[in-house]
Amino acid sequence: MRRGFLQSRAALVILALAATAALAGVVGRSAYVQALGPVAARGQSDLELASDRLVTQLQRFREFAVLSADHPALVALHDGGSRAEAGTMLLRAADRSGAVLAAYLDRDGQVLAASEAGLPDWVRAGEPLRRAFDGALGVAHGPGPAGVARAFYFAAPSFSDDGQVRGALVVVVDVARLERDWRGSLPAVLFVDRGGEVFATNRSELLGWRREGAATLVSAEGAPREVQVRRPGGYTVWAQRFSPYIPARALRLEADLPVIGMTGVLLVDVAPAARLAALQAAVVAAGLLFFGMLLWLALERRRALAEANQVLEARVSARTRALEQSNVALRREIAERQEAEAALKRAQAELVQASKLSALGKMSAGISHELNQPLMAIRSFAENGAAFLERGRAERAAENLGRISDMANRMGRIIKNLRAFAKAAPEPARRVGLAAVVESALEVLARRIEQSGTEIDWQRPDRATVVMAGEVRLGQVVVNLLSNAMEAMAGRETRRITIRIAPDDAAGLVRLTVRDTGPGIADLSRIFDPFYSTKEVGAEEGMGLGLSISYGIVEGFGGKLRGENVEGGALFTIELQQAREIA
What we know:
- By secondary structure, this protein is of the alpha+beta class.
- It has helices at about 1-70, 70-75, 85-95, 120-125, 125-135, 175-180, 270-295, 295-300, 300-360, 365-390, 395-420, 435-445, 445-450, 470-490, 545-555, and strands spanning about 100-105, 110-115, 140, 150-160, 165-175, 190, 200, 210, 215-220, 225, 230, 235-240, 250-255, 260-270, 430-435, 455-460, 465-470, 495-505, 510-515, 560-565, 570-575.
- The chain contains 15 helices and 21 strands.
- Residues about 535-540 have low confidence and may be disordered.
- A hairpin with a 6-residue loop joins strand 11 and strand 12 (about 235-240).
- The protein starts with a helix and ends in a 6-residue tail after the last strand.
- Among the domains are: about 70-180, Beta-Lactamase, CATH 3.30.450; about 190-275, no CATH class; about 425-583, Histidine kinase-like ATPase, C-terminal domain (Heat Shock Protein 90, 2-Layer Sandwich), CATH 3.30.565.10.
- The longest helix is centred in the first third of the chain and has 67 residues, at about 1-70.
- The strands form 5 sheets. It has a 6-stranded antiparallel beta sheet with strand order 7-6-14-13-12-11. A 5-stranded antiparallel beta sheet has the order 2-1-5-4-3, sandwiched between helices.
- Helix 1 (about 1-70) runs antiparallel to helix 7 and helix 12 (about 435-445) crosses helix 14.
- The protein is flat and about 145 Å long.
């Protein structure tokens, strides 16, 4: 029995060790893949840096070819110009740019001028010149002139006045000179042509190597080298033992460089990532073994954990109740805020009505005068009419009765305007004649205008100006602007209000302008703020709400209200949408 117990314990230990090893392997694999992410990101950055450096270095030679192709010294060669002068120009330009050779050829491939001799024959019949003669920029690479093993070639076309290609400028760049600036820096960077051959690199030992298939490299001497290709987590990792110049295990990254017809390849050492993964796997294995040894302590503390769980559940319940109470309070606060918003809207509406009634109070003296004058006239005409009837003069009596009817109509019109102005309920936007609104406002303020000695310069437009607005609320805005203008001009020698209506058919707008001869606006940025007023505080003064309310009314119609200072006073402009014609 003892032996069976020991065997079962051994089997359990072996099973635990196997599970630990398997889990550590899974963790190590996952950590290795995760560690490859930062390595790939840094490698991609290094590859882009190296690629940009090569492309940027070649860019100046490309620009040299493009900008110098139409040089006057080269263009003159087609008309018998001096080849010596053109050659001197090319030599000087090549020396300044660092180019190995610069040559200008005609359509037949004949060299008309060159910085020095030695342009390879394959270039004259090659792809770069064919592209240049087709009107495009030709780019190629291959063997260079004498003394240059590898070179880039840029061929730029030269166009005649009729748009035809008459020649091409070929610029030759020594790749070895470019490599001097970055050889040995960064990880191994290879620039591979379309044929898979390494044409430029910061590891000169790899020049001429080429890739054949997915797992074979061929050295410059033609010796094949096998590479083990692995793809952990979608990354490509090469494993090799034949070259000391690249890492034994390297992450392979690529970047296509269509500008120069190359592919940039970066080989980054993955040994740090492997070490990090191994360390994480070892830590996991050690942790599992440690926790396995402490498993029996967990069994002994099970009761304590159960008690702690009960305490935790009690705390959770208490916290839940507190959260429920907080939610109830939050909902109550939301309801209170909604009620406050509704009360605010009601207060704003009441404030608008109060402002209108305040304006009516200010106009009460003028209103009583406007109504008393027609009443006195009606009484006089009635007495005259009765006297004429007693005398048998029916024609004169009828004339007096007609005047009584006119006076009654005038009183009805005044009362209608006042009732409409005092109306509290908002009205929807509809077609409204803007000129009629202005004239109604002038009629309401007629007595006040007369008492203040204000001159009204009002010209009714020649054509109908119909806008989309509410007649009553728009009338309130006009009355408010006229009242403000008269108050601003109080105490000034010249008191004139100029009112104009200008339709803008192109923009679909109608503009109403009210200009006064007052002192102007003291603070343009605050004129439409609620409770802002430049008037002294007193019983007869307003609360600074008129312009703010007017601004909101005009915006409610989809229009704009703005104020500005002009020479000799202030100018307020109301912009409203034109009403469309109804068929």
